[in-house]
Amino acid sequence: MANAIARLLGDSPNKAFGKHLLDLADVGVACAAHFRQTNGQDLPGIVSFEKSADKIVDAIHELLDNAFIMRFDTPDALRLTDALDDVIDGMRGAATHVDIYKRYLRVLRPEAEELVVAAESAIRALRDLVSAVSTGSMSLNRAREGAKAINDAEANADKIIARAERNLVDEFSTMETNTLEFIALEKLYSMLEQITDDAKRCGKLIVSLIRKEA
Q: Dmax over Cα atoms in the chain, in whole Å?
């Protein structure tokens, strides 16, 4: 019913929302690529991406506050917007952690690098899904396929962090080891894995939105 009314009255707010959403996903992809390329060492650069994302989120909130008819229910659209923002906030959090514990994280370990790659893969898959849903109608099967690509990246991150944590236990199980270094590594692994969890949550929200349209 809402889609029919939107077609009758004009769908410019829906197009604007779709563009803003895709812009937000693009910022996420660019931020993830920069994080990988700099090994998380460029906190000011990551903060710049996060601030760009905040401006887009503010624009979406303003649009939704003033739009009359939207393709998606406003609370659902807000949840998806904020979930996408959480993904980018997660990268800022990880970069902040790297900066705080730079003494131990100046060079990322292979497990951390693998998690960064997994997070970027999840975010790229999420961007593809957002791109498809923002351009118009989308089948539920196509949405599920897109979400599966994100889920696969998240599942890979789960395997990586399980292996990484086992290695930490083996390495830091003696009294001579550095507790701060353990904290730095363990928390970084957790924060990077959380980024893939947040991307997976976005995928679930998109599938739910498409299911409501079906």
A: 71
* pLDDT per position as a tens digit, 63-90: 888 876 677 788 888 999 999 999 999 9
Listed in sequence order, the residues at least 6 apart from 128 whose beta carbon sits closer than 8 Å to its beta carbon are 146, 149
CA nearest neighbour of 205 among 46, 37, 85, 45:
85
End-to-end C-alpha distance for the chain, whole angstroms: 12
Q: What is the CA radius of gyration of the chain?
A: 19
pTM: 0.90
**Model confidence pLDDT, tens digit, residues 161-204:** 999 999 999 999 886 778 999 999 999 999 999 999 999 999 99
Fold of 2-213: Methane Monooxygenase Hydroxylase; Chain G, domain 1 (1.20.58)
